[in-house]
Amino acid sequence: MKSQRENVAQDRTFGGYLWLGGRRWVIIQQSKWRRNGQDRKEETQESNVHSCDCAFSSLLDSVLEARVRQLQTEYVSEVTVNRVEVAPLRTGSQKDLEALGLVEDRAKGDASSVVPVVGKTRSRWVEKLTQEKSDLYKRQQHLEVRLKEETFCESQIKKGVRAFLSRKLKSTKRMPDTGKEKADIGEETAVAGQETAHDTVRQEPFQKALKVLERNKTYVVDSDPSGQMSEVLRHSGKQLLLLSCLECLLSQNRLTQASDLLLSYFGHSGGRRVLTLPMYNCLLKAWAKQGSLHQISTLFSVMNESGLTPDLVSYASVLECMGRVNADFKIIESCLKQMVTDGLQLENLFHKGALHKQERMMVLKAIQKVEPGFSPPPASSHKIAISPLLRDFYSKEKPASYPKLPLPLLELQKRFQQQLTLESAMTITIDSVEKTPVTKNSCQAVSPLFSCPPAFSVQALFNLPPHGDSLIHFVMDLAMKVYNKNLIQMKMKPFVLDELNRKYMNYLHLLAKDTQLDSCLPREFWESLESEATISSDFFTQEKVWPDVVLVQLGTHLVEVLVQAIRMPNNLFSSQTEKRLIPVLYHVYSFLSVKQIGFIKPHPAFNQLVAEAACTKLTFDSSVMPMLCPPKPWTSPVFGAYVLHPTKLMRCLDGTVQHQQQLENCPQEHLHSVLDALNLLGNCAWKVNQPVLDLIISIFNAKGSKKLDVPPPMSEAPIPPSYQFSKDASSLEKSRLRREIAQCHKTTREMYSLRTDALYKLSIAHHLRDQIFWFPHNMDFRGRTYPCPPHFNHLGSDMTRAILLFAEGKPLGPSGLNWLKIHLINLTGLKKRESLKARLAYANEILEDILDSADNPLTGRKWWMDVDEPWQALACCMEIANAVRSPDPTAYVSHLPVHQDGSCNGLQHYAALGRDVIGAFSVNLMPCDVPQDVYSGVAQLVEEQRKRDAAKGSSIAQVLEGFISRKLVKQTVMTVVYGVTHYGGRLQIEKRLKELDDFPKEHVWEASIYLSQLVFTSLGEMFSGTREIQDWLTRSADCISKSGSSVQWVTPLGLPIIQPYHKTQKTIVSGSLQSLCLMRYSDVSQKPNTLKQKNAFPPNFIHSLDSTHMMLTALYCHRKGLTFVSVHDCFWTHASTVDVMNEVCREQFVNLHSQPILQELSRYLVQKYCSKFQ
Fold first, then answer.
1. Which of 187, 272, 555, 946 is placed for a possible disulfide with 479 were both Cys, Cβ 3.0 to 4.6 Å?
2. Cα dist. 163→152, 156, 266, 300, 304 in Å?
3. Quick check: 975 and 985 in contact, CB under 8 A?
4. d(CA 780, CA 674)
């Protein structure tokens, strides 16, 4: 055991901070010569993985040599770890390869040769490294000898089995003796016999995860022997990992090995505390399918000795097994009596047990043997929401009639089958809008790569940017694809899919325009279908969460396979006669100061190949595409959105479990209004604005346009200077050249990111140009709603929003055309402080320019190009032109969404909470003839103070003359209410100043500091009550977090909220390429992060009120038959219904702030956090 643990001391992991997909990951550099004795002792308790030792040794040698080269040279920015064969390129030189991050080609040398160290003499540091490598090699040899005898995992399992067998028959309290039953060890042997050698070979990734589990197990047993820490907090991560391993074994019918794994934990006093009821239940369900009542009895005995009480799932498995083997009357009767003793009701088995048809039949067969007259009772009626804000909305006193979709039933049913096919395939390949010629040689070279292992691997390969991707991001991306595929396959079982198909087909009767049913909300109608179903919807959502450690182990294994398996010819761009296959991917470390971040990079020859091939296809996960049918309605925290693809109701960082636990523990009637609002937003049907799309694509393929925010192609990227120095070059010259090269690479990466983002959006829109589609919605932990498809949605940029239209059109009516014109002027940003009448009059004055923009957008006067939102303005110009030229503008059917944006919505909520009259007037909460613009008001106060300072001789105030504008201060004013600091505000203003071409760049720093101070001072004068409320919220959160708790509250609609900010937790995962250190910032087992908890509480609380107001508006607009969607505080509807939406919006804002919000919050905080001190 000691030698195995010593292996961990050999680990070295390198890395740095990364923000990827909303998650903060850290790859930390750890070096043996910097560790103290305690660190080594802790490490020895964390690893016994030996399968990758040989590869690790080679990796270590390469890393150390790379580090020496980096320290002894002055300009190498990246170093390859594994040997890479460099194919000769058609253009460029060795210097170009170095600029791309490659070192010299070592293909011609011996694979085992060591790269000569740059420099003439060996330093003492290099000698120290050499000696250390020798010591590590000796330890490794000793370790390999020990591991050949027996693995730690095997020894622990055998030890646990021996300990268990000695006492497994001592306890039979829970279950009667079942020795008379036919199901016995013979059946177990038959099941175990199905585990073939092929199964063992396939489990290499799982075995790695299992070894990590055993390593964690050792730590759990040895740490905290006093047992003072909460069991839930101590073991949550280990429990999740163990449960995942059990499910992995059971999914491959390896029941015996799964049972042995559980028993090995039960046989250890520390491991027994890790076992949970879901672990036992998954084994109970598996053995129930085999009809092994003997194993069921054994597990119940073990469960009883562990102090766990069986639940409905446990007893359902037992009764199912009894039904399969036709158990004796007395055994079944004893089981039912024990169930009553445990406080469980028989009727709940069929409503909360999530049984499918066959399981229900077996359970019912067993029950009816004892109680012949028993039949499952009908489902109980659901409670209605109790929030005072919605009592009249859910009241059944008045008949309700809800709007329909603009499609017939048969068309919707056809679309559902298309969506089902799309999600079951997991990926979709569409045409790219980026058109370039394709060469014959490139096509022939690229095509073999598509025949490589799984489709998602090839998709990941071709989605890699030329500069590569961080290893942790690439690893997690591949692992999540496997995880999602596993969940989708579970849902595609015949009995599950048939039941889902039946329910959804019936559900479409509520939405189709040619059906009569319209008196129910989507959630209510689906719940009524549940009462008639043989399978509860909960069965579809029994999604097993894989821990981060398992995902990283799986993803690392897949990356290793890709690096080794995917190759390409070396002579594609040269006349070389010798043809070899070289790797397409390679692993490098990018140096950031003293840290190194692992990257996976494609070979430069492959980048050139892909660029010249100009692939005309793009492959996406089906989950990033809009849906072709209406989403499944949200009926619970675990059911809704996509048909098959798993979707979280509350999006959060991976590894965060507290949000889901709160939602599941919350009374379901408290969530009804939130679920209904999400369903209404998701049921809005969309289509593509084809004329605008075609214009954008034409500019996109014509080198883009900076003015119109269309990214240019990569051919316009700057070319980095060559790595060439003269012999007498100074260090300053070298530093300057390095900065220039780094800036070029940064600009190139940014251009690639923007270009790719636009390509994805436009390609998806082009693919859907003749379709009607939907955006399923979910929310963040504050309740703010978001569409699930990440690339193409209405929360996107000006370009993306201009492409979208409502699928359902409505006649303009008497006021619709006027609202279109006002909407156009709002998009220009020209008349912010003018009344609506003045804006309408201005639109009529420039009607000729509007019509010219619609008719000749690229060849006319181009008025639309000089406004704040040019593409949306152009779409509105075209809609106005069509309306005014129609025979009857009032009858013109318009599909264009019209927006009504909040006036700095956060400040509106603060002004209403504090009853601040002056602040309310500034953000249009008070009646006035002319709309107030808080941004212009702050800019005016800042300009007045600047003039006074300039008169006193302030040089920076004099430099800023003529540069103070609304745009300069808008972002800072908008985000102050959401917690932006003076430092953040300075950065925002600095960015705006840099965008001004004629502002002297040497004064940007000083000017940004000066202006940020003036903005904060001006806001304090305008909103006196806002700062007081913010300070109270901040102090409250500070006290709560310092007491060891996270800040929680409940929104006026009943949505529970908890802030996920905790101290960091590190988990090191070993791999043959490199070791990764996962940093989690939302683990409930860690102490709260006081700084984040207190700083985030005020903005998060305001965001929760903002989302509450939006949901109230959505529900009541739907009740009135309006089409409604939102972008947070910006509400969209048809031009003909803007007046109605405005009325509902104002009514619900008054309704919301008529409630004692701050008083209720104070009462909740006192009750939750102070009751134990009273």
1. 555
2. 17, 11, 9, 17, 16
3. yes
4. 12
pLDDT tens digit string along 1056-1111? 999 988 888 788 888 788 888 887 777 777 889 999 999 999 999 999 999 999 99
Among 503, 458, 561, CA closest to 205: 561
Query: Which residues touch 116 (CB under 8 Å, ≥6 apart)?
Result: none
Alpha-carbon distance 606 to 86, whole Å?
10
- Architecture field, domain 917-1022: Orthogonal Bundle (1.10)
| H/E segment holding residue 480 | helix 471-491
What value, to the nearest 5°, has the Cα angle with vertex 271 and ends 265 and 272?
80
First to last CA, the chain: 51
940: number of Cβ within 10 Å: 15
**DSSP-assigned letters across all residues of 132-178:** HHHHHHHHHHHHHHHHHH--HHHHHHHHHHHHHHTTTTS--SSS---
Q: pLDDT (tens digit, 9 = 90+) per residue, 943-957?
A: 999 999 999 888 999
pLDDT, residue 818, reads 95
Contact of 876 with 823, CB cutoff 8 Å: yes
Task: Annotate 870-905 with b (16+ C-beta within 10 A) or e (fewer).
Answer: bbbbbbbbbbbbebbeeeebeebebbbbbbbebbbb
**Is there a contact between 539 and 354 (Cβ–Cβ < 8 Å)?**
yes
**Residue found under tokens 């390593």:** 215
In the chain, CATH 1.25.40 sits at 231-370
Task: Write b or e for each residue in 357-382: b if 16 or more Cβ atoms lie within 10 A of its Cβ, otherwise e.
Answer: eebbebbbbbbebbeeeeebeeeeee
Q: Are 596 and 13 in contact (CB under 8 A)?
A: no
Q: Classify strands 777-779 and 785-787 as parallel, antiparallel or unpaired.
A: antiparallel
- The CATH class that applies to domain 810-894 reads mainly alpha
CB atoms within 10 A of CB 592: 13
Q: Measured between alpha carbons, how far is residue 515 from residues 184, 529, 532, 582, 789 in Å?
A: 56, 17, 21, 61, 29
Show the CA angle centred on residue 232, arms to residues 1104 and 286, nearest 5°: 105
The confidence score (pLDDT) of residue 689 equals 96
Rg for the chain (alpha carbons), in Å?
33
How do residues 687-707 score in pLDDT, each as one tens digit? 999 999 999 999 999 988 989
Instruction: List where CATH 1.10.150.20 sits in the chain.
Output: 917-1022
Query: Can you tell me the distance from the alpha carbon of 1106 to that of 803, in angstroms, rounded to the nearest whole number?
Result: 27
Could you give the residue numbers annotated as active site? 901, 970, 1129
Nearest to 954 by CA among 907, 1010, 909: 1010
Q: What is the pLDDT of residue 543?
A: 60
pLDDT at residue 937 greater than cutoff 60: yes
DSSP state of 683: T
Q: 126: pLDDT confidence band, cut at 50, 70 and 90?
A: low
82: confidence class by pLDDT, cuts 50, 70, 90: very low
One-letter amino acid for residue 805 of the chain: L
Tell me, what DSSP letter sits at residue 452? S
| Predicted pLDDT of residue 1102 | 93
Q: Would you give the distance in Å from CA 545 to the centre of its chain?
A: 14
Domain 231-370 of CATH type 1.25.40: yes
Residue 33 clears pLDDT 60, i.e. is over it: no
Do residues 904 and 973 lie in contact, with contact meaning Cβ atoms separated by under 8 Å? yes
Distance separating alpha carbons of residues 900 and 1134, to the nearest angstrom = 11
| φ, ψ for residue 602, nearest 5 deg | -75, 150
- Report the C-alpha gap between 807 and 687 in whole angstroms: 5
DSSP class of residue 631 equals P
Query: What does the alpha-carbon distance between residue 1005 and residue 989 come to, in Å, rounded to a whole number?
Result: 10
Cα separation, 864 vs 827, whole angstroms: 10
Q: Residue 265: what pLDDT?
A: 84
Cα separation, 742 vs 736, whole angstroms: 10
Q: Quick one: average pLDDT of 52-75?
A: 45
Give the residue, 703 or 21, on which the prediction is more confident: 703
Q: CB-based burial of residue 728 (10 Å sphere; 0-12 exposed, 13-18 middle, 19+ buried)?
A: exposed
